[in-house]
Amino acid sequence: MSRALDKAGRWIGWAFFADLANGLALTFGYMFSRPVTMQYPDKEKWLPYSRYRGHHFLKRDDEGEIKCVACELCARICPCDCIEVVPYEDEKGNRRPAKFEIDTARCLFCGLCEDACPADAIALGQQYEFSSFSSRDLVIGRDDLLAKPGKAMTGGGVVAARLNTERDVLVEASEPRGYNWWRNIRRK
Question: Which residues bind [4Fe-4S] cluster 1?
Fold first, then answer.
């Protein structure tokens, strides 16, 4: 009986040693490979893909008027109830939002508001840096939503960290620089 236990104990010991050796080999393989950490925000910034859903913004029509007709469909379809719209009628009889606020602290950035809008007035942009120390600062009003930039048609790379200070958006470099970490992730 003890002889069988000794054989089983040796076999279990070798199995654990093999697992330990595999784990150490993987660790040493990553230790001597090139790092995948980006030096953010000082040296490099990430350009989101064109389908990325970041901050919200409101669109204007050709005459410079807000496209929103205050139908409140975006507020009704929102799963987290973070959109508040208060309508009014202007002097021409057009329905416009007197108050349009989005609480980005509660928002899921699902894009349902963008899909539900019949006037194509609300969209999700590509800005991903809007952190704050207070949740009250994350409630964005109508005027701020109108001032935000729209979507870029390119993206998905790493560029040098340069900002256009007038619009607070990234200026794309002539060619993306930096380490393309996504291409070099090891997959089994």
Answer: 68, 71, 74, 117
pLDDT reported for residue 188: 45
Q: Is 113 assigned to a binding site?
A: yes
State yes or no: pLDDT of 160 exceeds 60: no
Confirm whether residue 82 is marked as ligand binding: no
Query: Against a cut of 0.85, is the pTM above it?
Result: no
Fold of 56-146: Alpha-Beta Plaits (3.30.70)
Break the chain into its structural domains and give their ranges. Answer: 1-33, 34-50+152-188, 56-146
Spatial distance between the Cα atoms of 59 and 68, rounded to a whole number of angstroms = 8
Higher pLDDT, 98 or 149: 98
Task: Tell me: is residue 110 an annotated ligand-binding position.
Answer: yes
